[in-house]
Amino acid sequence: GENVEQHPSTLSVQEGDSAVIKCTYSDSASNYFPWYKQELGKRPQLIIDIRSNVGEKKDQRIAVTLNKTAKHFSLHITETQPEDSAVYFCAASGSTGFQKLVFGTGTRLLVSP
Amino acid sequence: DVKVTQSSRYLVKRTGEKVFLECVQDMDHENMFWYRQDPGLGLRLIYFSYDVKMKEKGDIPEGYSVSREKKERFSLILESASTNQTSMYLCARTDPPYGYTFGSGTRLTVV
Questions:
Q1: Bridge partners of B88?
Q2: Is A25's Cβ below 8 Å from some Cβ in B?
Q3: What average pLDDT does range A7-18 have in this prediction?
Q4: What confidence score (pLDDT) does residue B47 get?
Protein backbone atom coordinates (compact mmCIF):
# COMPACT_ATOMS: atom_id res chain seq x y z
CA GLY A 1 0.00 0.00 0.00
CA GLU A 2 0.84 3.65 -0.07
CA ASN A 3 3.38 5.05 2.38
CA VAL A 4 3.98 8.76 2.94
CA GLU A 5 7.02 10.17 4.69
CA GLN A 6 7.13 13.78 5.88
CA HIS A 7 10.06 15.97 6.96
CA PRO A 8 10.93 17.78 9.09
CA SER A 9 8.92 16.86 12.15
CA THR A 10 9.42 20.33 13.62
CA LEU A 11 10.32 23.60 11.94
CA SER A 12 11.00 26.93 13.62
CA VAL A 13 11.25 30.12 11.57
CA GLN A 14 11.22 33.85 12.15
CA GLU A 15 8.25 35.86 11.01
CA GLY A 16 8.71 36.83 7.39
CA ASP A 17 10.92 33.86 6.55
CA SER A 18 9.89 31.09 4.18
CA ALA A 19 9.07 27.54 5.31
CA VAL A 20 9.29 24.36 3.28
CA ILE A 21 7.87 20.98 4.22
CA LYS A 22 8.65 17.92 2.13
CA CYS A 23 6.86 14.63 1.60
CA THR A 24 7.63 11.50 -0.38
CA TYR A 25 5.19 8.81 -1.41
CA SER A 26 5.63 5.24 -2.56
CA ASP A 27 2.68 4.42 -4.85
CA SER A 28 3.33 5.75 -8.35
CA ALA A 29 -0.41 5.45 -9.08
CA SER A 30 -1.31 8.06 -6.45
CA ASN A 31 -2.92 11.04 -8.13
CA TYR A 32 -4.11 13.46 -5.46
CA PHE A 33 -1.96 15.25 -2.87
CA PRO A 34 -3.64 17.52 -0.31
CA TRP A 35 -2.12 19.49 2.54
CA TYR A 36 -3.93 20.02 5.83
CA LYS A 37 -3.33 22.54 8.58
CA GLN A 38 -4.29 21.71 12.14
CA GLU A 39 -4.28 24.48 14.71
CA LEU A 40 -4.10 23.58 18.36
CA GLY A 41 -7.32 21.93 19.51
CA LYS A 42 -8.95 22.14 16.10
CA ARG A 43 -9.74 19.79 13.25
CA PRO A 44 -7.42 19.45 10.24
CA GLN A 45 -8.46 21.75 7.43
CA LEU A 46 -7.51 21.58 3.78
CA ILE A 47 -5.28 24.47 2.74
CA ILE A 48 -4.13 23.45 -0.73
CA ASP A 49 -4.05 20.40 -2.94
CA ILE A 50 -2.54 19.30 -6.22
CA ARG A 51 -3.36 16.61 -8.73
CA SER A 52 -0.87 14.51 -10.62
CA ASN A 53 -1.40 16.29 -13.92
CA VAL A 54 -0.09 19.57 -12.45
CA GLY A 55 3.45 20.40 -11.34
CA GLU A 56 2.78 23.46 -9.19
CA LYS A 57 -0.12 25.31 -7.63
CA LYS A 58 -0.19 28.60 -5.75
CA ASP A 59 -2.68 30.28 -3.47
CA GLN A 60 -1.47 33.60 -2.11
CA ARG A 61 1.42 32.84 0.29
CA ILE A 62 1.28 29.07 -0.05
CA ALA A 63 2.32 26.85 -2.92
CA VAL A 64 2.68 23.16 -3.53
CA THR A 65 5.05 21.51 -6.00
CA LEU A 66 4.90 17.95 -7.26
CA ASN A 67 7.66 15.88 -8.82
CA LYS A 68 6.04 12.68 -10.06
CA THR A 69 9.28 11.17 -11.28
CA ALA A 70 10.90 11.45 -7.88
CA LYS A 71 7.58 10.85 -6.07
CA HIS A 72 7.84 13.82 -3.81
CA PHE A 73 5.83 16.96 -3.17
CA SER A 74 6.46 20.01 -1.06
CA LEU A 75 4.57 22.78 0.68
CA HIS A 76 6.05 26.27 0.50
CA ILE A 77 4.90 29.09 2.75
CA THR A 78 6.33 32.53 2.08
CA GLU A 79 6.32 35.58 4.35
CA THR A 80 5.36 33.46 7.33
CA GLN A 81 3.19 34.97 10.05
CA PRO A 82 2.59 33.85 13.65
CA GLU A 83 -0.87 32.62 12.66
CA ASP A 84 0.81 30.09 10.34
CA SER A 85 1.96 28.25 13.48
CA ALA A 86 0.26 24.85 13.39
CA VAL A 87 0.80 21.21 12.53
CA TYR A 88 0.81 20.53 8.79
CA PHE A 89 0.01 17.14 7.28
CA CYS A 90 0.62 16.00 3.75
CA ALA A 91 -1.36 13.15 2.26
CA ALA A 92 -1.58 11.05 -0.86
CA SER A 93 -4.40 9.07 -2.37
CA GLY A 94 -3.41 5.51 -3.08
CA SER A 95 -4.44 3.49 -6.09
CA THR A 96 -7.15 1.53 -4.31
CA GLY A 97 -9.94 3.97 -5.00
CA PHE A 98 -12.57 5.15 -2.50
CA GLN A 99 -10.58 8.40 -2.21
CA LYS A 100 -8.66 6.93 0.70
CA LEU A 101 -5.90 9.23 1.94
CA VAL A 102 -2.64 8.14 3.54
CA PHE A 103 -1.17 10.86 5.75
CA GLY A 104 2.35 11.83 6.66
CA THR A 105 3.36 12.07 10.30
CA GLY A 106 3.01 15.85 10.46
CA THR A 107 5.26 18.90 10.79
CA ARG A 108 4.92 21.29 13.70
CA LEU A 109 5.65 24.77 12.37
CA LEU A 110 6.45 27.53 14.85
CA VAL A 111 6.67 31.08 13.57
CA SER A 112 8.28 33.45 16.05
CA PRO A 113 7.50 37.18 15.94
CA ASP B 1 -21.14 24.75 5.02
CA VAL B 2 -20.45 21.02 5.13
CA LYS B 3 -20.66 19.58 8.57
CA VAL B 4 -19.26 16.44 10.09
CA THR B 5 -20.34 16.07 13.67
CA GLN B 6 -18.80 13.82 16.27
CA SER B 7 -21.08 13.32 19.22
CA SER B 8 -18.50 13.59 22.00
CA ARG B 9 -15.52 15.89 22.30
CA TYR B 10 -14.04 14.12 25.34
CA LEU B 11 -14.66 10.63 26.68
CA VAL B 12 -13.20 8.74 29.62
CA LYS B 13 -13.84 4.99 29.68
CA ARG B 14 -12.63 2.08 31.74
CA THR B 15 -10.55 -0.81 30.43
CA GLY B 16 -12.77 -3.55 29.05
CA GLU B 17 -15.75 -1.31 28.33
CA LYS B 18 -17.45 -1.34 24.93
CA VAL B 19 -17.18 2.15 23.48
CA PHE B 20 -19.18 3.76 20.69
CA LEU B 21 -17.95 6.82 18.82
CA GLU B 22 -20.55 8.42 16.60
CA CYS B 23 -20.10 10.49 13.47
CA VAL B 24 -22.83 12.14 11.44
CA GLN B 25 -22.50 13.99 8.13
CA ASP B 26 -25.03 16.39 6.71
CA MET B 27 -24.53 15.49 3.04
CA ASP B 28 -25.34 12.41 0.98
CA HIS B 29 -21.77 11.36 0.23
CA GLU B 30 -20.84 7.74 0.36
CA ASN B 31 -17.29 7.70 1.67
CA MET B 32 -16.63 8.08 5.36
CA PHE B 33 -13.50 7.36 7.36
CA TRP B 34 -12.24 6.87 10.90
CA TYR B 35 -8.69 7.88 11.76
CA ARG B 36 -6.80 7.99 14.99
CA GLN B 37 -4.25 10.70 15.62
CA ASP B 38 -1.23 10.17 17.85
CA PRO B 39 1.77 12.48 18.31
CA GLY B 40 4.57 11.57 15.95
CA LEU B 41 2.43 9.04 14.10
CA GLY B 42 0.13 11.34 12.17
CA LEU B 43 -3.32 10.18 11.15
CA ARG B 44 -3.75 6.45 10.71
CA LEU B 45 -6.77 4.93 9.02
CA ILE B 46 -8.79 2.50 11.13
CA TYR B 47 -11.81 1.74 8.92
CA PHE B 48 -13.70 3.31 6.10
CA SER B 49 -17.07 2.84 4.45
CA TYR B 50 -18.11 3.54 0.89
CA ASP B 51 -21.82 2.88 1.30
CA VAL B 52 -24.48 1.73 3.72
CA LYS B 53 -23.56 -1.58 5.33
CA MET B 54 -20.24 -1.59 3.45
CA LYS B 55 -16.94 -1.36 5.29
CA GLU B 56 -13.27 -1.86 4.61
CA LYS B 57 -10.35 -2.26 6.98
CA GLY B 58 -7.76 0.45 7.06
CA ASP B 59 -4.20 0.18 8.29
CA ILE B 60 -4.88 -0.41 12.00
CA PRO B 61 -8.27 -2.16 12.39
CA GLU B 62 -7.32 -4.47 15.27
CA GLY B 63 -9.52 -3.94 18.30
CA TYR B 64 -12.07 -1.87 16.38
CA SER B 65 -15.22 -2.45 14.37
CA VAL B 66 -17.62 -0.12 12.58
CA SER B 67 -21.29 0.21 11.72
CA ARG B 68 -22.95 2.04 8.84
CA GLU B 69 -26.71 1.47 8.95
CA LYS B 70 -27.59 4.84 7.39
CA LYS B 71 -25.62 6.83 4.88
CA GLU B 72 -25.22 9.83 7.16
CA ARG B 73 -23.99 7.95 10.23
CA PHE B 74 -20.73 6.03 10.68
CA SER B 75 -19.94 4.58 14.08
CA LEU B 76 -16.63 3.33 15.44
CA ILE B 77 -16.80 0.62 18.07
CA LEU B 78 -14.11 -0.39 20.51
CA GLU B 79 -15.17 -3.89 21.46
CA SER B 80 -13.15 -3.98 24.69
CA ALA B 81 -11.33 -0.74 25.35
CA SER B 82 -7.67 -0.90 26.29
CA THR B 83 -5.26 1.78 27.47
CA ASN B 84 -3.37 1.69 24.17
CA GLN B 85 -6.54 2.93 22.49
CA THR B 86 -6.26 6.24 24.32
CA SER B 87 -6.06 8.67 21.42
CA MET B 88 -7.74 11.38 19.38
CA TYR B 89 -10.27 9.91 16.97
CA LEU B 90 -11.20 11.82 13.84
CA CYS B 91 -14.08 11.08 11.53
CA ALA B 92 -14.00 12.37 7.95
CA ARG B 93 -16.05 12.31 4.82
CA THR B 94 -14.97 13.04 1.30
CA ASP B 95 -15.82 16.43 -0.04
CA PRO B 96 -15.08 16.16 -3.77
CA PRO B 97 -13.15 17.75 -5.30
CA TYR B 98 -11.76 19.24 -2.12
CA GLY B 99 -10.49 16.22 -0.22
CA TYR B 100 -11.83 15.51 3.23
CA THR B 101 -13.90 17.36 5.74
CA PHE B 102 -13.07 16.29 9.26
CA GLY B 103 -15.14 16.24 12.39
CA SER B 104 -13.85 18.09 15.43
CA GLY B 105 -12.51 14.90 16.96
CA THR B 106 -13.14 12.81 20.07
CA ARG B 107 -10.37 12.60 22.61
CA LEU B 108 -10.75 9.22 24.26
CA THR B 109 -8.97 8.31 27.46
CA VAL B 110 -9.09 4.70 28.62
CA VAL B 111 -8.21 4.22 32.26
A1: B37, B107
A2: no
A3: 97
A4: 96
